[in-house]
Records
---
Amino acid sequence: MEQNLILYTIFGMSLITLLIKVIPAILVSNYKIPDYINKILEFVPLAVLSSMVIQFIIIDDGELNLSFTNEFLWASVPTLIIAIVFKSLFATIFVGLLSIIFIRYFGIF
C-alpha cells in the first residue's frame, strides 16, 4: 500500500508540475509580449543568480560575515575581475575554484 501511495504521489506531482508549466505557455502562445516586458525579463536570471551568489559569499552559519577573514569574500574579488574582463563562465568558475583552493591550501585566513 505504501508503495502505491508513493507512486500516486509522484504521478500526481508530475501532472501538477506539467500543468502549471503547459497551461500558461498555451495561454500566452497567441500573444506577442511587448518589447519593454522582454527587456525587463532579460534581467530576471541575472538578478536571481546574483542574489544566490551574494548570499553564499557574505552569509556564514546564518549570520552576516563581512570580516577580513571571510575567504569567500576574498576569493570573489579575482573571480569578479575575470568575469568582467573575459565574460567566460568557464574562466570565472575556474578562477573562483583556484582562488578558494589557494586560500585554503596556504591557510591565508
---
Amino acid sequence: MKGCDYKNLTISFNKFHNLVDKDVPEYGEYCLLELKDGRLTGGSWNPDDWEHKTAEGSFIRGTGETVEASEVARWHSLDKDTIAGCLEEDGVNYIDIGPETDDGSSVEVEGFKSFKDKDYPKSEQFCFLIMKNGDLAAGRWDKLDEEDGEFVYGSALASHNMEDVWAWAPLSPDEFFEMEQESEREEKLEEEMNLNPSTDKKKFKYGTDIEVYYDKALEKLLVKYPWATKNQMKKVTPWEITPLHGKNVFGQVSTGYKNARIVDEWTDGESADEFIDFLCEYTKRSVENSNPEEKFKYGTDIKVYLQKAFDEVKKEYSWLEPQMLEDGWHYDIQRINDEWEFVTAYGDNYKYYPRECGSAEEFIKTVIRDYQEEALEANPVVDSYDVPFGHVEIHGWNLEHYRVYKLKSGDYKVSVQAGDRVTGGTREFFITPNCFKTKSYETFLDRYLEIVPGEHFGLKKKDLLADEKLKKFLGFK
C-alpha cells in the first residue's frame, strides 16, 4: 500500500442498519457493531431462525464468545466493502464507506498502527483491521509472544494472520480486555512486591537456602533409610523458597496460561521444623522406592531383567521370538544424578527416560506388559467374530463392540470398546492357553471371565453361554 499513510487515516462508516426484523445481516456475515452502550466491536451474524429474517440471534466474536442481539444497536457489514483502490492513491487520509449522512450517525475509526513499526495490540484487545488486500475485518489479538500473535474472529479459533494485516486500530474495551489488563496490573504489582520480600524468622530460622532444609530432612530419613539421598528425595516435585505477595514462602513453582507464574504455597505449618517434618513425609515414598538392594537385586546388567521378563511371557505367548521385540521398547540401566535408574525408550527414539520402579520385580512386571503387547502385535489376525448384544451400559459408558479374534498361532484375543458422546476407550485381552485346557465350555467361560470380567466389560456368563456361534468360533462343539 504505497499511497496511503495509515498514521493519518480515518475511515468513516456512514450507512448503519438498525438490528430489526427484516433488516439483518446474511448468515455468517461479519459486521462492525455499535452496541447500545456506545461501544464498538465486531462479529459474524448467527441467527436463531435461518429461514426468516428475524433480529433474534447473536454475533460470534471468537471461540465461545458471542454478543447477543439484544445488546446491539446497529450494524454495518465489513464483508461487502473493500478499500484496495483508495489505499493505492497518494494523499488519501479520509475514506467514506457508504454515502455521507446528515444525521450524525456515522462512526469513524482512526488511530491506525502497523506491525512494521513494531506496534502490537495489547493482549485480548479487540481491533479493527485493514487487510493487505484492502478488505476490512476485526478480531481479538491473541498474543503468542512479544512479537507474534493473531486476530481471532470466529469459532474454532478462526483467525487472521498478522502477516495479512496492513494496519490495525483498537476498538472499544470489553470485559475480556479489562480482565486481561487487570491481570497484567496484578502481575506487575506482584513483581514489584517480590523485589524485596520479607522473611518470617520463625519459618525460616535456618535461612533461605532450601538445600539446608533438604539436608536436615535427609538426616532424619537416613535413620530409617540408610540409602537415602537428596536426589532420591527430589524425584518428586521439589520445593523451593520463593517470593509470593512480598514475602518468602516454601512453595512449588510452575508456569500457567500465558507463562503466568504459579506458586503452590506450603500452608500446613508455621515453623521451619514443621516444614522439615513435612518434607520427610512428602519424599518418603520416593526414598522407599529407591533402595538399590531391592531395585537392582539382580545387578546392573539390563539383560538379566529382560531375560526374566521374556521367559515369563514365553510361557503363554508361545510364538514370541526375540526379533519381534526389536522395534518396540528399549531398556537400559543408567546413572542419572548419581543414581542408578531403569530407563526406557521406544522405537527409533533412543532418548531414554527413567521408569520409576521400586523393586526389580516391579520393573520386570512392566517389561512383561510391554512384551505381551508386542507379542500380540506380531501375531496376525486370521478371523474375527463380533459378539451380538443389545444396549449394554458399563459404568456410564455404552458398549460399542465386543470382538473376538483368532490369531495366526491358533490363539485368541478379545477387543472391547465402550464410550459415551464425549470420550471412550478400547482394551485388548489375550485369552491364555490355560483357559482352553478343559472339555467343558462352561469351565472355559469361568476362566475366560477372570480375564474379561463381565461386570467390568459388559457381557456376563449368561450372555456368552447363549451364543452358539461364539462357542463354535472358540473351537468348542
---
Amino acid sequence: MSLDEPHLNLRNLNKSDYPQLKVLMDHVYNDIGGAWPEKTINRLIEDFPDGQIVIEDDDQIVAVVLSVLVDYAIFSDPHKYSDLIDRYERVKHKADGDALYGLDALIEPKYRGHRLGRRLYEARKELCRSLNLRAILAGGRIPGYHEYADQLKPTEYLDHVARKEIHDPILSFQLSNDFLVKRLMRGYLPEDDNSKGYATLLEWNNILYEPEDRVVNAKPTQVRVGAVQWQMREFESVESALQQVEYFVDALSDYQSDFAVFPELFNAPLMGLTEQTDPKAYIRFLATFTETFRTELLRMAVSYNINIIAGSMVELGDDEQLYNVAYLLRRDGTFERQAKLHITPQERRDWVIKGGNELNVFDTDAGRIGILICYDVEFPELGRLLADDDMDILFVPFWTDTKNGYLRVRHCAQARAVENECYVVTCGSVGNLPSIESLDIQYAQSAVFTPSDFAFPHDAVLNETTPNTEMIFFSDLDLSSLKVLRNEGSVTNLKDRRLDLFSLKRRRK
C-alpha cells in the first residue's frame, strides 16, 4: 500500500474483509462506538451484496460505503438511526424497497484528498439507477457543529456550510455530490456529541426513476429519426408525387425509424400542374391537394408503423386565408397541426400567407416534440416556450434558396439545441425547377444538432447530409442523456435562468 503509487480497485465487500473493515471503522468512528459487529456486516453482505462497496489499494481496504434498501415513503420523513437497526443489531434491509439508504461512508484518513469518496458515491448513484430506485437517502452527521454550537443554531450552521463560510467534513462533502438537505433531524444519533445529536436528512433524486406501474408502458429512451433531404422534381400528377413520398416512407420504415421527416412545402412542385402564372393563384392551387396528401400520409404512418413529420403544406383555412402548416401524423392514426407563426416577407408579399396563432408541444410514443417551420426557428422565444413545456426533440422543416439563407436556419437551430437542452432535427429540400417561380434554386444540408456537453458529439452535430444531394439519413437520439444533462450537466441552462430578472409568457387568444 503506497500513497505515492496507489493501485486502486473498486469492488464489493466480502465477509473475509471483516478484520480490515473493523480496523478502519474503529479508527474512523472512534467517537461513536467504532465498528459494527461481524454478524451485522455479514448479514448486510447476505441481504444486499451490491450495496456494500469498497476501494482497496494493493489488497488493503482504504474506503467503504455501506447501504440498504428502504421504503422511500418512510425514510424520506424524519427518523432516527435506531429505526434502521433491530434489537439483534441487524440492519433492516427491505428487499423490495424503492430507495437506497446510505448507512456509512468512511475513508482511511491518509487517503483523504484523493477523491475516493466521490468514486464511491458515483458507484452508489449508478447502483441506484441500475435498480430503478427513486432516490438515495442518508442521515448525515454534522461533526463540525460542536465548534459553533455556542454561537449558531443548527439551522444557521447548515446555512453557513451551504454558503461555504464553514467547512463541515461530512455535510460539505454531501453537498458537493449533489445531495440536498431536506430537513434537520433531532436526536438522530444521540451519542454523536460532535453533532450534538443532530443530523441532516439528505436526498439525491434519481431523475431516471420510473415507477413500477409505468415501466410496462414507459416510452423508449432511444429514438430513431429518419429524414429525407428531398429533391424538388417535376411531377406528372398528384399520384406520382405521393408514390415518391411513399417510397421514402417505406425505406425509412425498413430501418425501424420512429419518425420520418420531410421538408417545408415539399409538395410545391405540384404548382407546375397549373397554367396559372400569378403567384397568388398557383399557391391557392397547391392548397387544393393538402387534404389528399394529409389523408394519404396518415395512411402511410399507420401502414408503415412510423410517425411522419409532413414538412409543411399550404392549407386553406375556414377564414379563406392561406396558412403554411406542418402535420404530425402518428402511427396510431391520429394527427396534429402546427402552423408557421412567422411569415417571411416573400411568403407575405407573393403568396399572401398568414401566420398561425398556436404553439404546441405534441406527445408521441417516442418523446415530446415541437415543430418550428423554417423562419420560426430564428425566433428564440418559441424554442424556449417549447422547452418549458418539456419538449425533447424539435423538428425544423425548412426551405431555403441560398446558402446565406440556409446558414441563418442552421445557426439558429444549433443555438436552440444548446440553450434549450434538446435535439433539433433540420430537414430541407434541394434541386431546382426553373419553370416554377420561387422554385428555381434550393440550398440545403439537413442535420441533427445536440446540446454541447460530454454525452454528445464534440461539435454538437450528431449527423448531417451531403449538401444539395437528395438522400435519407438516420440518427439515434438518447432521450435519457437529455434528462441527465438538464440536471447534472456541465452547465444547466434551463435550471440556471434568472427568473427573478426576466420571464417569458404566452399570450393566448
